[in-house]
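Changelog-adjacent note: as of this version, every example in the card shows the full chain rather than a window. The one below runs 137 residues end to end.
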Amino acid sequence: MDGTPKGRRLVALSETECWRLLATRPWGHLAVVVAGHPDLFAVDHRVDGRTLLIRTEEGAKLRATSGARIAFLVEEIDEVAREGWTVLVAGYGEEVFDPHRLEAVDLDEPLWTGDRVHWVRIVPIKVTGRRLVPHVT
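Full-length structure tokens:
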């Protein structure tokens, strides 16, 4: 048994659909390795072409992203209807220092508190997604 709810099936999403869905959510979860252990952080993000920009503050999360392999997950789940989707971006992080590279991106106020003035670009290696939909026979 694969854990899919009865009467539902998982459908793979195209990369184009994944990018469209990524742009519909203002935040997601960033997975990094800190001090040799996996860690997960809720972060703001923006889609910028075929990359993601993550807003963060100084600290372990910022240090763990630059030049490292990282992953980002965003999802929308309707628990009542038992439908939804999930998108995973796996790639490497690079801190963005040039303010001109950020000018074209909508940089509204961060959702989280703190001094979130640093931006990290996730350059994807793999973008995948799945949608949970009703199973039609």
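Structural remarks: The first helix runs from residue 15 to 22.
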